[in-house]
Amino acid sequence: MSSPKRPVNIHDEYHAHIYFERETVDFATDLCRTIGQIFTLPVGRIHQKPVGPHTKWSCQVTFTKDNFDRFIPWLDEARGELSVLVHASTGDALKDHTTYAYWLGSEVDLNLKGF
Questions:
Q1: Position 111 in a domain
Q2: Fewer beta carbons below 10 Å: N end or C end of the chain?
Q3: Number of H helices, E strands in the chain
């Protein structure tokens, strides 16, 4: 079994999608709030339903290559058991969620039919 691709800082812009479930919604909410406070990055809504290609509940964080080297190691440490999709934001949604998709934790299946 192959390991998920780890994030690399080779793009200008990124999204991190933090995945959670009913049992971990409080932990995820606190994590996203902390990200906004510590890193002052744009943090999206806490979606308590699948949204777009995301098959689990999630919250999106937007960041750039300038934030990457500080944010990603911190997020990897702080995420606990949560899975996080980190992908480039190039304007090509299919490539961003496949070719340019990286993982902290276990991979989560995505629904790519909408691309």
A1: no
A2: N
A3: 3, 4
